Amino acid sequence: MPHTIGSISVPKIFPWRRSSTLPEAREGLTYGSPELEAVRAAARAGDRTAVAALIACAQDSDDRSDTVLVAAATVVACHGGTVPRWLLDWVTGEPGDPIGWTLRGAVEVLRAWEIRGYHRVREPGPGFPRMLDAAEVMCARAAQLDPADPTPWVWLVHLSRGQGGDPADLRERWARLRALAPQHLRGHEQMLISLSPKWGHPPRVMTEFVTGAAATAPVGSALNLLVLRGYIEEWVECSPGAQRRLLERPEVRAHAQQAVDRWLHPHGVDPRARISGHNLVAFWYSLCGEPELARPHFEATRGHADRYPWSYLRADFLRAYLRARQRSGLV
After folding, report:
1. Exposed e or buried b for every residue in 185-211, given b needs 16+ CB within 10 A?
2. Which helix (H) or strand (E) holds 46?
3. Residue 272 — pLDDT band, cuts 50, 70, 90?
C-alpha cells in the first residue's frame, strides 16, 4: 500500500532499492563487545572506579590495550580538547596508579593527533610536540609503575612517529614492548605504521618488519593480516598507475591470499580482532576489484566500519565503507 508525503503518494518500497537486514554503518570501536561497551559507558559517565576495574580485569595484554583505547577514545569524543576533571583527579589523587597514568597518556596522544590532524604533510601547531612530550612522560610513568604491562609501550610506539625523533628511540620502545608481549597485535599494528613510507622510512624497512612478524604469526592470529596492512601502506604512497600495477602483481595477490587463509585457518584458536580483520580483508578485496570475495567479509563486520583503512579512500570513511559494501552486492 502506498503512503503519502504531503500530497504525494509514494510506494513504501522503492523499486530501485532492495530490502535489507544489514545493520547501519557505524564506527568500529567496541564492535558490540559487552566488555568494551561497559568501558565506553563508564568513560562517558566519568565513573573512574568502573573504568579502572574494567581495565584491570582485562583477560590479557591485548584485551587491556583495547579497553584503554576505548576509554581514551570515548573521553576525547566526549570532551574534545579538554581533559575531564575525573581523569585529572585520578592521576593527582592516586599518583601511584599505573592504570590512571596509562589512560591519561593515551588521552593526551589522541588529543594531540585530533588537534594536529592525521595528514602527514600538514604542519603541526606548536602545541602538538608539547602534548606528545607530555604524553611520553605519562606513559613512561605508567611503565615504571607497572613494568609487566606492555600497554604503555604501545602508546609510546604510537606517539613516537609524531615526535620525529631518533629511530633508535623507536627501536628501543619496540624492543621493550616485544619483550613483554611478543605477539601483541595492537603493538605490531602501531609499529608497522611507524615504519611505513608515509613516515619517512624506506619501503624495505616496513617490508622486513612485516616479513619477520608474519613468519612467527600462528595460524588464526590477526598478525597474519599485517601482510595486507603492509601492502595497503605501500599502495597509499603510490601514484595511481603504480597503485594499479601493485595490485595486479600475481605474487602480491598470492601473498595476500596466503595471509588471509592463515588467518581463517580452521585450526586457528585466536578469535581476537575478528571484526576489524574482516574490515581489513573487505577493504583489500574491494581495492583489488574483487567485490564478490569482499562480500562475506562485509557481512561479518556487522556494520562496524574501521576508520583505518577506509579513510584511505575518502575522509568520510563510513561513506567509503558503505559504497564498497554496496558494490559487493549488499544493500
Report:
1. bbbbbbbbbbbbbbbebeeeebeebbe
2. none
3. low
**Under the phi-then-psi rule, with left for phi > 0, alpha for psi from -120 to 50, and beta for the rest, what region is 23?**
beta
Quote the pLDDT of residue 178. 97
pLDDT in tens, 31-46: 999 999 999 999 999 9
Provide the phi-psi class of 220: left if phi over 0, else alpha when psi is between -120 and 50, else beta.
left
Residue whose C-alpha cell is 601547531: 125
Report the DSSP beta bridge partners of residue 8. Answer: 5
Q: What are the Cα distances from residue 174, in Å, to 22, 154, 170, 280?
A: 40, 8, 6, 24
Residue spans of beta strands (DSSP E) within 219-323: 304-305
pLDDT at 81: 84
Mean pLDDT on 262-268:
87
Cα(35)–Cα(71) distance, rounded to whole angstroms? 11
Alpha-carbon distance of 54 to 99, in angstroms, equals: 10
Closest CA to 326 of 291, 297, 280: 291
The yes-or-no verdict on residue 270 having pLDDT over 70 is no
